[in-house]
Amino acid sequence: MSQVFDRLVFYLEAHYRRKHKSMDFDNLLHQANCVLELCRAQGIKIVSVDDSEYPENLRNVRGCPELLFMKGCLTPGDRIAVAIVGTRNPTIVGQAVAAEIAADLAAAGVTIVSGLAYGIDACAHSAALNARGRTIACLGHGVDQVYPKANWALYREIAETGALLSEYLPGTGPRPWHFPERNRLISGLSLGVVVVEAGLKSGALITADWALKHGRPVMCVPGSVKSAASQGTNRLIQEGAYLVTCAEDVLSFLRKDNEYVPQPETGRSVQCVSLEESLVLNSLARYESVEDICDNLNEIPVYRTMSLLSALEVKGYVKSLAGGKYVLTPAGQKLIT
């Protein structure tokens, strides 16, 4: 505790210096004791970089925070972690793909790291929890604050089964400049970063930049060239990011540099598709045109069928052709045989 207290005093000194406020040593000691009492009362743990509980991946990056404020707990298995980030305004396909990759990775024993924002972040956290896996949320505010408020239930569940982490003092509200700083924690905690849908100005691209600085692989799910939500991810792929469409791709890339990354077989099949997707795949075994496929699947609304076709194309199970036609890829054919 003495190491934590000493680091907390220096942390507060730097904190007030940044605000152009001076404080004598006795007041710093008083403030540090007040922070400790507040953390005890709210069930917040302060983890020092010297602590064995401090995340190993994060400790190994330059400029890691000397203190982390945490709700929940960290485990040794959290070393095998992957960040999944993306736009706050995802498409239906983006949500489905993010959820599938997160669930499959979590089922394989990989901890999912994200930022508890709207959109892809929330999809990734929720999917990991639904798969009964572990997930860590890095926050751009005090760990006692919930932002956005709509994610309160998710915040509470992560605190109970995973970990909420922040480098900001309890009581600190969200500020625009906090989130780019928060993104370096997301990257630092992870063996690699997966970006699922990101526009050209998306904050997820900042996380990708941090990953490159940390020497971590950047992986992107490709999207339509007509979709603004995929312009950032498509550009990252052009610049050399790995193209991934499923959890198996992610694990394969990570295993090149980390032999302890689990095989996909340790979890549920990463090839699994939903019932609706299975119906579309079976229809494609007989029909090619969108019109015929939709007629054959008259129990599924046309807009939903189009969304399913797009999702299956992203996963690599179908391929679109000129004239509004789709065909099964070899991977898709394996799913219906």
Structure report:
The protein has 337 residues and is of the alpha/beta class. 45% of the residues lie in helices and 14% in strands. Strands 1-2-6-5-4-3-7-8-9 form a nine-stranded mixed beta sheet, sandwiched between helices. Strands 10-11 form a two-stranded antiparallel sheet. The longest helix is centred in the N-terminal third of the chain and has 18 residues. About 2% of the residues have low confidence.
The name of the CATH topology of the largest domain is Rossmann fold
Instruction: Describe the global form.
Output: elongated
The gyration radius over C-alpha positions equals 22 Å
**Assembly level:** single chain
With strands numbered from the N-terminus, the spatial order across the biggest sheet is 1-2-6-5-4-3-7-8-9
Helices and strands: which structural class? alpha/beta
Given the structure, what is the number of helices?
A: 14
Instruction: Please summarize the sheet with the most strands.
Output: 9 strands, mixed
Mean pLDDT figure: 88
CATH class of the largest domain: Alpha Beta
N-to-C series of helices and strands: HHEHEEHEHEHEHEHEHEHHHHEEH
Query: Fraction of residues in helices?
Result: 40-55%
Number of E-type strands: 11
- Count of all domains: 3
Instruction: Give the amount of beta strand, in percent.
Output: 5-15%
At CATH's second level, what is the architecture of the largest domain? 3-Layer(aba) Sandwich
Note the gap between the termini: 60 Å
